[in-house]
Design a protein that fits this description.
CATH topology of the largest domain: Rossmann fold
Radius of gyration: 23 Å
Number of helices: 12
Number of domains: 2
Largest sheet: 5 strands, parallel
Number of strands: 18
Structural class: alpha/beta
Helix content: 25-40%
CATH superfamily of the largest domain: P-loop containing nucleotide triphosphate hydrolases
CATH class of the largest domain: Alpha Beta
Strand content: 15-25%
CATH architecture of the largest domain: 3-Layer(aba) Sandwich
Length: about 375
């Protein structure tokens, strides 16, 4: 005798931790909430998954041949009966692969259903992690991640903020209110390799790759629902952004509407950090200060052409001991704001002039004026 649909729904509600997870600060519309089930084991241990495929897998434990119609009915019942919860917003708490790390006390705590996370880093926090030195027998070189980071810029302030950005991409509950724009007109400068390290820290499926031009397009923002970061290592040259409202809202964690294919749109607040790589400064219609203060330009001035070591990207930065050390380092730093070096401030001023012909004209003409009054 097979279970009825409503019986499966109530069994799941009583056997598993299932909740309606609010996606904004408003409690008015339950239809905007995401139904999630807490995972007690497996690769998603400690987080609530909102994937239909995973919920269907659990439902099949109780009815192997559950139909699409029955599954939809079961989901409807659970949405009505499940308790409503809020995503964890404590800025000091970070979901890593093996627990919840408290940034303030530097301690690792076990997962609990009471702390609602929908994503986590795929890297363990290892308190004994060390900066390992890797020797390459073929070319006789030694490599370690600390030394490699120092090669990305001759400006110590830039190296420091790059470490801080590595930490920001795994600390989504902090309101950074800025996006990182790593900029260089030449290739082979380390931007793409650094993005590989960022993706290793976050973990497959936990970052979105949404280029700047796609933030104003339908259905392109759906990956944000399960992401804690946006990491893009290539934007089209000549990009022009006509509508920047969604981009600005994502950067500062404001509410956006996410249109989902074959599902109802939802209001959603993205919690996470964004990194965009640029080979050319983008032109944006929005020239307001509210747009500019969301930008953190980091110039990459080094060039490694002729000295490429592809195994750094393909091998070294994917090794468990290397990524665990990076995790250990960034979680044992102490900061809730970026230390922006002068070179980054200058790059932003340069961009303002590039993006605004009027500002550029005034910057050129003002030093030449002799009068105190400009007609």
């Amino acid at each position: 005798m097979e279970l009825e649909t409503y019986q499966i729904a109530y069994i799941m509600l009583h056997v598993h931790y299932i909740a309606l997870i609010e996606t904004t600060e408003s409690e008015d519309d339950a239809d905007c909430a995401l139904l999630g089930v807490y995972m007690e084991d497996g690769e998603d241990e400690g987080i609530y998954t909102t994937k239909d495929s995973e919920i269907r897998r659990i439902a099949r434990l109780y009815k192997r041949r559950i139909t699409y119609k029955e599954f939809q009915e079961m989901m409807y019942i659970m949405r009505e009966e499940a308790p409503r919860v809020k995503r964890c917003s404590e800025r000091n708490l970070i979901a890593v692969n093996n627990g919840i790390f408290d940034f303030d006390t530097k301690t690792l705590m076990p997962f609990t259903p009471d702390k609602v996370f929908t994503s986590k880093s795929r890297v363990d926090y290892n308190p004994n992690a060390k900066n390992v030195v890797i020797h390459n027998d073929e070319d006789g070189t030694d490599w370690d991640v600390e030394s490699w980071m120092n090669t990305l810029s001759d400006d110590k302030g830039v190296v420091t903020i790059l470490w801080q950005i590595l930490g920001a991409i795994i600390r989504p509950n902090v309101s950074w209110n800025k996006a990182c724009f790593m900029y260089s007109e030449s290739g082979n400068n380390g931007k793409g390799t650094l993005c590989v390290l960022m993706r290793q820290l976050v973990g497959e499926g936990r970052y979105a790759s949404i280029p700047l031009k796609d933030f104003g397009k339908d259905f392109m923002l759906e990956p944000l629902i399960r992401a804690t970061s946006v990491i893009v290592d290539e934007n089209d040259v000549g990009t022009y952004i006509d509508k920047a409202a969604n981009l600005k809202a994502v950067i500062t964690g404001d509410t956006i509407q996410v249109n989902r294919k074959f599902k109802a749109p939802i209001s959603f607040k993205f919690k996470g950090f964004m990194v965009q790589c640029l080979n050319e400064m983008p032109r944006v219609k929005d020239k307001s200060d509210s747009f500019y203060r969301r930008q953190l330009f980091i110039p990459f001035t080094k060039c490694f052409t002729g000295a490429e070591r592809k195994y750094i990207k393909d091998d070294y930065l994917k090794r468990k001991e290397v990524v665990e050390y990076v995790m250990y380092k960034v979680l044992n730093m102490n900061y809730y704001e970026f230390d922006v070096p002068e070179v980054c401030k200058n790059a932003l001023e340069e961009y303002k002039e590039f993006n605004d012909p009027v500002r550029q004209f005034m910057a050129e003409i003002m030093p030449q004026l002799q009068w105190d009054f400009v007609p």
